[in-house]
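Reopening this ticket.

The earlier resolution said the output was attached, but the attachment link was broken on my side. Pasting everything inline this time so it's all in one place.
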Amino acid sequence: MQNKELLVLEDFLREAYFVVNTAHVIDVLKQFKQGKHHMAVVVDEYGSTVGLVTIEDIIEELVGEIYDEYDIKKQKLRKISDDTIIVLGDENIKAIEESLNVKLEEEDVVTINGYILTKLGVIPEIGEKFVIGNLEIEILDSTKKFIRKLKIKRL
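Inline output:
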């Protein structure tokens, strides 16, 4: 530091905002908006800290990954071999078709997540493997709402 004056953490502190772990997401979002909070310490029924939640965490769980100027854009499609790729669930079907030289027979969806949900009717769990058409699919990461990452192999 060029400045001889020492900076003390106390100078930057803000009073912590707390929410209970049983609070409904919509209520927490309203509280964030009303109080102009961006994060909260999450406590349980005993007042013990169980985590930290940000407004971005909540919104991403509802609508999917959000990229801002500080995030490095994640690579959505990574080619492992000529017949195998790893992709994020929000990858466009056209990119997958081009990468694996296949045609996916679904016209009403845009993403691989939508394609799989349309075919299976459920959100598969992490570790599940299944075959759709000439593709072997393995779920690498998912939530209760959507598939985050998967491995696709052309058979």
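Reporter confirms the inline version is readable. The longest helix spans residues 25-35. The chain has a mean pLDDT of 88.
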